[in-house]
Amino acid sequence: MPWIMALIAVLGAAGILGITGRTHDGAGSGVRGVSLREMKSMSEKTVDWLLARLKVAEPPEPVMGAMCYDMAMPMMVDEYVCVVCGEKTVYPDGSWMLTELPECRSLAEGIDEAVDFDVHLVETSLCSHCEPDVTSPALALSVTRDDETSISNAVSRFDLVILSSFLEGRLAYTGDFGDETPLLPHVARIAELLGAGEESE
Hints:
The protein is of the alpha+beta class. It folds into 2 domains: about 90 residues, no CATH class; about 80 residues, no CATH class. Helix content is about 30%, strand content about 20%. The protein has 5 helices and 7 strands; from the N terminus they run ααββαβββαββα. A 3-stranded antiparallel sheet has the order 3-4-5. Strand 4 and strand 5 form a beta hairpin. The relative contact order is 0.19. The N terminus is likely disordered.
């Protein structure tokens, strides 16, 4: 562990990990978060260092969010137009996954822009023409590191939220009600999504 802490101290002093100053960023950690734009073209080694930091850093205290207001329920989306073949798939009962798809795409694009390796959302299982035998459609995340591609299946909006928060150098993620929750319990999933599980040990 001492080598990890020493490495973190050096990277922190250089500003690589986005901990150049302390402020109240809502993460409950006292550590300055950075935008994905600031962290653009983050290398694979830097991502692995961030994983090492997340494992050893003291997690911030959770912060409760506001629960005293009603949220308007979004309309269920019932049609999907495939980004690969252009065909339309109809979901008669609607799909929450399709409702969240625009946000998932936006999060995935931001994640891809933040790193210098390829990250993209895979939507083919949502299309009945591309994958007619799929019974449980779900998003997937494709990550190519060191010329090797890993696919994480059943990727949710939550997965992309925690991954985006992690790449901003934060130790916590913000929930729908403004609550702040530590990322530490999700470090294994973050590493899995990045195809970095073994490398970050």
